[in-house]
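Consider this record:
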Amino acid sequence: MVPPRDDSEALPGYSIRVASRLTGVSPDTLRMWERRYGFPKPLRNGSQVRVYTDADIERLVLVSRALKAGFRSGEVIHRGVEELRNILANSARIETENEQRTPTIDSLLARLMADDPDGLRDELRRSVALFGPRQFLTDVAAPLVERVGEAWAAGRIAIRHEHLLSEVLSGQLRLLSSAYDDRLSGPVALLAGFTDEQHGLGLHMVALYLALEGITTRLLGVNTPPDQVAEAAVALSVQVVGVTISSSSDIAVTEGHLRRLLSALPADMPVWLGGRNARKIALNDARLQQVVTWAEVDLAVVRMRASFDANA
């Protein structure tokens, strides 16, 4: 159906109302662009009413499409029709290529080893968009950390690469977790690593996983003395303390820290042990629970909720 023309005063073209409907650009925006950029510059009929030509409409439609593709008005408003068509065609090609390149553990490792933090960050973000936060954790973040640890142990990557991954990935995990910071009720878990523990990525991953399960997390981070962990647990009124024990942890020292922690905690507070060396802990205390796999995290969360609801 051909839209009605406002040509009652002999000027062929369209009123601002019809132009807005044809292009998807609001009348207020059309007026603002006219003042700020000098385009569109409609004709005026005898009553000084704006009249937009077919050429105006064609160019405005392309500008509107460019804005939807992510360009800013100042980047495209002065460009001609052919240039706008080329911009849109190139943008569509890049978007298609990006959609076809699903990030993999190998592609993420390649970014890391090429010292490309921006590319690594972009691929991680795309992974979140493609898989969602939960699958990103279980199928991308955790396997990537494990592969990097293995590569470092084998001498295939430098320590700077491990640090770079920690910085970029922890930033992404913190950003995702921040969406759940306003939770005001429900169970609370405290996550920490003892003195001399250097690896905190596992804590960030578990914090996000718990947040997705409706658990509020308080993250102390690594290098925290056991007495400080215990004091924080009491002060923050948490239901569970989670401790990371990485492959670089000294088991004898860690067991000493755990004894001091357990002696300072309430007698009924569970302590989750996570990380690659968690299963090496040989202490005999009913409060200690090994929570190493995602399935074990799920089971621990069920127990935590049941205890919280029983005491509520």
